[in-house]
Please model this.
Amino acid sequence: MSHRVITTEPTWVRRTLIGLALGFVALFLVMPLAAVFTEALRKGLPEALAALHEPDAWSAIRLTFITAAIAVPLNLVFGVAAAWAVAKYEFKGKAFLTTLIDLPFSVSPVVAGLIYVLMFGAQGWIGPWLMEHDIRIIFAVPGIILANIFVTFPFIARELIPLMQAQGTDEEQAAQVLGASGWQTFWHVTLPNIKWGLVYGVILCNARAMGEFGAVSVVSGHIRGQTNTLPLHVEILYNEYQSVAAFAVASLLALLAVLTLLIKQAVEWQFERDQKAAAELPPERPPAPSPAAPLATASPP
Model:
């Protein structure tokens, strides 16, 4: 039987709100995205592809994927550990830990980059020691990876914490009572319950890692062919008035963003499908006693 949502607002209010939402999306999302692809193809597809085949562009693409490939798994480990600690245990400083997890959401990425310059730069706290041992972090790939880790590490933890808090600890405690070890409990009980939230957090974390600009711009040094990621390469091309090349590289970032949204939508669809299938399962019933095994009766003394 189908269910209809009953609202008290008149029809014109609903249509006005829907129209405003669609207009906002079209004006601030669809039109800029279409403008990027239109400008990238203004001189034809061969010109746009030529901009992507340049050595500096390939270096930026490679560094972007390398940075994401390192930052996302590290944040995955941290996010699961932080969510487990916050959701499953009670300890002093729990609220403070939760606040620290949210810190990159409230701190400007530029400030995050300056923090790493203050720590690892030539005049920073550890900079002179690093220079003595010929270790480069600022204006090198390690600094870019550290900046990306800082700005992206809340995403996975923030997806998992409310999910694990809502699930509680009953299933984990039951598994441990039955003799399961900590790893067995995690792999066979906790992980299946949080898998869709985990995938969703990884998708968001990867999208932010590939598109980060502010923090990376501070720590990279803008060295062409070495420390430029895709967003930084777009800025350099645009400042050099190579608009077609800049929009061609920007269109690659836009395609990655669209692909991320499609994967996100597929994950949400699969999650809703699993939830619906689980809700339609009949409740489990205890097995009926076998007729071949009669109940034991007490014998007279």
Q: What stands out?
A: The two ends are 61 Å apart (CA to CA).
